Amino acid sequence: MTQKKRGMRTIDVVICGLFAALIAVGAFIRITIPTQPYPFTFSLQWLFVLLAGMLLGAKRGALSVAAYLLIGLMGVPVFVHGGGPQYIFRAGFGFLLGFLLAAFLIGLLTERLPRFNRQGADSDAPFMPEFLRLMIAAVVGLVAYYFVGTAYYYFMYSVVLETPAEWGLGIAIAGCLSTFLPDLALCVVAALLATRLRPALNRVI
Which residues pair with residue 41 across a beta bridge? Predict the structure, then answer.
């Protein structure tokens, strides 16, 4: 029994490290959206955060994001605009914190939401019910991700930088509107991928 637990712990570390690396890679696959006065960035990080929650569950999904954040804050340039502890003073750091909450919620809902498997359904049954279940988790995670990111953005501009509150909130909302639909599209992609990948990954972990 002890050996089995050790094996599972080793697999957990490897899997969490892999997804932390994928999130880091996603930071370099990005498009800068020229919103004013500050540009926002759309990247594939969100796709890998979604997959971490859907495929690994709440605990391991959140640990993957936490490992990624720790690596970046230690100075490794894995964030969109570099790395280091000073990154917490960037207004956009809240969206990275949003990744952590989103991965946990997505994993939790993926584990807890009822499954819609029909009795007697074979392996070739349509996957749409599972897709819808994952989409519910993804959308909840998306809302949490944007809520944390926008709140942090607003706080940094209106409190820390002492700019007019309406101005700081306006920047955050404008940036969110520019990336929300692409991120929603990534929710669809992640749900489709996870529907196919979950059975295989569950046999490993």
Answer: 32
Cα–Cα distance measured from residue 142 to residue 50, given in angstroms and rounded to the nearest whole number: 9
In this predicted structure, what is the pLDDT of residue 139? 97
For residue 39, is the peptide bond before it cis, meaning its omega torsion is within 30 degrees of 0? no
The tens digit of pLDDT for each residue in 129-169 reads 888 999 999 999 999 999 998 888 888 877 666 555 555 56
Indicate left, alpha or beta for 38 from its phi (over 0: left) and psi (-120 to 50: alpha). beta
SS3 assignment, position 1 = coil
How many domains is the chain built from? 1
Instruction: Determine the structural domain holding residue 171 and report its residue range.
Output: 2-204
Residue with tokens 């639909």: 181
As given in the structure block, the two tokens for residue 105 are 């919620």
> How far, in whole angstroms, is CA 41 from its chain's centroid?
15
Specify the pTM.
Answer: 0.84
Strand partners, 79: 82
Question: How many C-alpha atoms does 78 have within 13 Å on its Cβ side?
Answer: 22
Query: CA angle, corner 157, sides to 156 and 163, nearest 5?
Result: 145
Closest to 179 measured CA to CA, from 23, 34, 52: 34
User: Is 184 strand, coil or helix?
Assistant: helix
The conformation of residue 43, written as its DSSP 8-state character, comes to: E
Kindly report the CATH number assigned to the domain that includes residue 148: 1.10.1760.20
